[in-house]
């Protein structure tokens, strides 16, 4: 049965985006950890449902120490094959850049959904290894980067783009990046939600200017208003889930389906331990992860 699933997955990679197999949370959670690691690096070559020849090349990558997902996107039909990385991790920069090289892509952006507290971003290290790459983070985060974005901004890569949506609450500077809306953009849309929405969960709200009320409002106004078939790709997962949809989370998310007061009560009583990396990660990520860049680049 396992062999059949793998063959089925392989056969689907060349299908248009709206017909492709996407690993479901239920299927992913039932697989062995070794197979999940392999599937986390599976490629989806995606094509818009229109007659346009524009194609999005997509990879979902995993960093096991912090359970962080990094996402590689590129306009594969553009002559330059421009690409970007969402939420790169310093520990896996070499892997990510090797993949970019193997695929013949031109990396132009290294972007973060927020100032992470559980790992050091790889954006600064990437800049030292690939001249010309620009780092991106939200202006509201008050962190350093080459480009500071705000709600409504568009991050263009080739003929494709990501729309910036402000989704504060986990931190004051959280944003969600959403693939473009239009006949010339890949469909269904994809939302890279950082820690604002996790699969069947959400990020904590008890540090870095977090607010349960603000997170609830952000999710319901900026993410749950997207088409229900929009894919949700979070910054982390701790149970082996890989992807969800807006419609799924609106139905099954055990926190965000509650009314606002119940949600605030849940978040205030999580009793989570202090993040072990926060004292290192936050200061480093405020300066694009460049806290020890000379020794790392050596």
From TrEMBL:
Q: Does the keyword Mitochondrion apply?
A: yes
Task: Look up the record and report any one GO term of the cellular component aspect.
Answer: mitochondrion
Q: Where in the cell is it found?
A: Mitochondrion
The entry's keywords? Acetylation, Dioxygenase, Iron, Metal-binding, Mitochondrion, Oxidoreductase, Transit peptide
Question: Where the protein is mainly located, per its record?
Answer: mitochondrion
The record's listing under Gene3D superfamilies reads: Ribonuclease Z/Hydroxyacylglutathione hydrolase-like
Top-rank lineage group of the source organism: Eukaryota
State the InterPro entries in the record.
Metallo-B-lactamas, Mito_Persulfide_Diox, POD-like_MBL-fold, RibonucZ/Hydroxyglut_hydro
Q: Name one GO biological process term.
A: glutathione metabolic process
UniProt EC number: 1.13.11.18
Q: Which cofactor does it need?
A: Fe(2+)
* Pfam families linked to this entry: Lactamase_B
SUPFAM superfamilies, A to Z: Metallo-hydrolase/oxidoreductase
Alphabetized GO MF terms:
metal ion binding; sulfur dioxygenase activity
Q: What is catalysed by this protein?
A: S-sulfanylglutathione + O2 + H2O = sulfite + glutathione + 2 H(+)
Cite the SMART domains for this sequence. Answer: Lactamase_B
Question: What is stated as this protein's family in its record?
Answer: Belongs to the metallo-beta-lactamase superfamily. Glyoxalase II family.
Q: Which named protein is this?
A: persulfide dioxygenase
Write down the species.
Answer: Lactuca virosa
